[in-house]
Task: structure prediction
Amino acid sequence: MGIGLFENLSEASQVEVKSVLKKTLTKRKAVDVSLMKKSTNINTVMAGVQALTHEHLSKYEARCEFVTDPQRLRDYIESINTSGYYAIDTETMGLNPMLDDIVGFSLYTPSEDKAIYVPLTHIDIKTLRHDVRQMSKAVALELLNEISAKAVMHNCMFDLRVLKHQLGFNTKIYWDTMIFNKLFTNGKEVSSSLKNIYSALKGDEQFLSFDKYFGKVTFNLVPIQHAYVYASMDALMTWEIYQHQLQLIENDKSCDLAGILSVYRNIEMPICRIVIEMEDAGVGVDLEYCEQLREVYQKKIEEAEARALASLKPYEVEINEYRLEHGGKKCKLSDPIKINSPIQIAILLYDIMKVGVIDNKTPRGTGAGILEKVKNDFTRALLDVRENGKLLSTYIEALPKQVNPNTNRIHTQFNPLGAVTGRFSSESPNLQNIPSANKDIRKIFKAREGYCFISCDYSSQEPRIVSQLSNDPIMINAFTEGKDYYATLGAAAYHKKYEECRETDANGNPNPAGKKIRERAKRCYLGLCYGMQARKLGETLGVTVEEAVDLRQRVLKASPGLKMLLDDSVEFARRYGYVETIWGRRRYLPAMELDMYEFTFLSNSTEAMIFDPIDFSTLEMYDKRDEIKEKYLKRLENARGFKQVSAIMGEARAEGISIKDNSGVIAEAERQAINTRVQGSAADMTKLGMINIYKNKELRDLGFKMLLAVHDELIGECPIENAKRCGELMSECMLAPVKDFVIPFKCDCEFMSRWGERLDVA
DNA sequence: ACGCGACGCGCC
DNA sequence: AAAGGGCGCGTCGCGT
Result:
């Protein structure tokens, strides 16, 4: 198969190639690489790569070129500058843009016939040395710096950082085809990968992903003559997708897409460089403190584990009996017991202690809620093990592993479109779920010498958004008067005075009765926004379902605007198949367009008979299909309760009709419709706040740098002496996007030497 | 040995 | 009858 790339290699060289490959093979993830799976033979692996690239990509050779001659690149860049726009894409050793080296880059501009690939760091597998037939990084950088045209990329968050860190090329992004695609298809089940978008665009051909072609083989090992078409095509595809996206906007005569386009232009594109600066700035970590914490928490866990095992002593006989009955040594209940195994815990709880079913939904669940209800020595100890174990493995031990050795800081990746609602997600590590209740963990993060953290968060951001969206007089009043919103809501719901529903009385003394009402109003209100049902609300408040139902009715009556918001969101989503935020971000909700019940007439059903060409009586059967459907729909509509519904569905199935119940996914989409408008608008607001902060010259001059975004909270760093002023400016910038709202917004600032450790600044 | 889904749980 | 929105990650246990 193919030409053996290693045929001419000496034995010794083969061994060396193998070691190089082995390193890279263990680094990368593999996805279905059938040609490589079975064999570790290097010849086969590389021949597979070659065969695949040849099979799929050789037909594009005429549109691609690899460039090692500086003069050719210089000419190409002149072309780029003439046309004013170009697409650029990088190939790298991995997916970490700060640590993984660049292997080459590709360019395309429409005034040239071909897309080009510029190889930089490929290895010649014959000599196992740097391939001499490529351009040096320094020369490439010098030439790239001549570009004055606007750059189009697919996922610029990655390429911009690679170009900056691995090549020293600092450039700006003009258009990002991935961001555009994600925004315009948000919520639909489509992939935004370059190859998938392009394949959909072309319709007739599947363009394979990096993994499909190269699997675990890093790109520097792919010989340039096999690599360049793949790489060049990335730039070409990006360009064509860009053209298609321009067309999409051009054709939108009714301006249906104006809202999303505005989010694209005014939020998501500007946010890119801001987030890149945050990621590159990183955040400081106290490794010695981590080590101290590790010891403390390890002790805590050992102690709790010992307590858990000791509490099982009374069950020793039962446990041994269970093991004997269930496979002895192979029993799932291992010896010693694995305290972190939910399966083993379930056996202990339900089969040995026989605590009975606690939660009907998860009859053998071992979650914290269930353990708290069982409440014996064992579950108490287990909860301690869980809690401290989580803290140890997820934070105390994991965070130091993420420290970049070059900067001694953690450089999280923030994905601006990581959540469908428009929120950021954060990964490697996730800095948006660092424990706050626990007072130890956040202190792992410390400000630079002479600097302090400033944290500025929107005070009750989502309730204010709800009030803005619903235009409810009670809510507007509470916020404009600066009253406690939930106390106001509680007072309106229970026809009491506002003062009676506050957590404290006029003198600042605790007011338990008021606190209770306020708490109920709050839980109920938040529950409504999340689509929580009365049952669950009752559970979380510790009241009966009846009381919960009553509470909900009271709150909805007290706040008619909230009721309208809930109803309108669902109605809008049902009519249009999507919802929008205040700023025009859209989330499609395909489930809203489903029928409550879907009918499939199986082969043994009446429908099958219509295909019998001899028996004309089946024609009559065909006509009856809709009738049958109608009949079942009527019955399902009138059915009360799960039992009746499933009985009807069973009956239908006996008749050869399968009925799919979509009520679950539709209800889920309804909850999402409501929540997305609220959460998504909040996300837009925070992002706009970030953009304002970034644009503020005074903040920049004061040495302020943004570091983290945690949904409704922004955290930055600045010299301690400038902290106070920076806090004021931050707050101003964050509030600017909502200055015209009927609801006043508010931000709270905190200054910290470590995260979670307050600092007084003059 | 490794990928993957389920579970459980940290945050807003 | 039953249904809380949005994330990422560690562990387990299964499957290949």
User: Anything to note?
Assistant: The first strand of chain A starts at residue 64 and ends at 66. Confidence is low (pLDDT under 50) at residues 1-17, 22-39 of chain A.
